């Protein structure tokens, strides 16, 4: 999904203008009928979410959208805020090595479908992918599901962790855990000929 949406502030401004939003009072934010376009973003404290949220707030300001960052102190308060429905975006992440976890977020009755989004086509793709035993067919179904998720802008995917690992050419056998986060050092060898 890399590069699915290119950053284009001018196109964003044009889309807002075509929907009838303009900065009629000169305060730097676009409005409609005198009401500023404002989005509420739920921001939990873990990881780099607070910093990334501030960065996004500035990007939205650049196109005239007021982003209000609502701090939530814990997972339980975040889930309560999700349940209230009084927000536009919520920062959340989950790690998984199998794409089946997408069903929890994007099927109609998914346990973590916080938005209440419902699409029978997406439901069918995700449920069939979970049942599929053929690896290529499964991959095709998940690719189709991910395309629908992105086309409908159901998620704003952001990678906020970057793990940098360096090693010399003389090291062989280096592997990483299933998530790709941490090196597994049990089978490494030093080959002096490659130093």
What Rg, in angstroms, do the CA atoms define? 21 Å
Q: Please state roughly what percent of the residues sit in beta strands, choosing from under 5%, 5-15%, 15-25%, 25-35%, 35-45% or over 45%.
A: 5-15%
What does the largest sheet look like?
Answer: 3 strands, parallel
H-E order: HEEEHEHEHHHEEEE
Number of strands: 9
CATH superfamily of the largest domain: Dipeptide-binding Protein, Domain 3
Q: How many helix segments?
A: 6
Which structural class do the helices and strands define? alpha/beta
Topology:
Elements: H1 9-18, E1 31-32, E2 35-36, E3 38-43, H2 49-62, E4 66-71, H3 75-84, E5 89-90, H4 102-106, H5 120-131, H6 135-151, E6 171-172, E7 175-176, E8 183-184, E9 189-190
Parallel strand pairs: 3-4, 3-5
Antiparallel strand pairs: 1-2, 6-9, 7-8
Explain this structure.
The chain has 195 residues and is an alpha/beta fold. The chain has 6 helices and 9 strands, in the order αβββαβαβαααββββ. The strands form 4 sheets. The chain has a 3-stranded parallel beta sheet, with helices on both faces. The radius of gyration is 21 Å and the shape is globular. The model has no long low-confidence stretch (mean pLDDT 90).
What attributes characterize this protein structure?
Dipeptide-binding Protein, domain 3, two-stranded antiparallel ribbon, alpha/beta
């Amino acid at each position: 999904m890399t590069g699915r949406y290119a950053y284009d502030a001018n196109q964003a401004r044009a889309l807002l203008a075509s929907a009838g939003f303009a900065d009629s009072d000169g305060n730097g934010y676009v409005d409609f009928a005198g009401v500023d376009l404002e989005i509420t973003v739920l921001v939990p404290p873990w990881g780099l979410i607070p910093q990334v949220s501030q960065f996004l707030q500035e990007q939205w300001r650049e196109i005239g959208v007021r982003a209000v960052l609502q701090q939530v102190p814990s997972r339980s308060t975040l889930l309560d805020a999700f349940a209230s429905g009084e927000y536009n975006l919520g920062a959340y992440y989950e790690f998984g090595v199998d794409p089946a976890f997408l069903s929890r977020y994007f099927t109609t009755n998914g346990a973590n479908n916080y938005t209440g989004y419902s699409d029978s086509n997406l439901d069918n793709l995700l449920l069939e992918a979970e049942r599929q035993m053929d690896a290529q067919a499964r991959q095709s179904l998940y690719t189709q599901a991910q395309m629908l998720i992105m086309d409908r802008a159901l998620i704003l995917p952001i990678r906020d962790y970057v793990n940098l690992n360096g090693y010399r050419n003389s090291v062989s056998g280096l592997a990483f855990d299933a998530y790709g986060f941490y090196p597994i050092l049990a089978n490494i060898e030093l080959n002096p000929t490659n130093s």
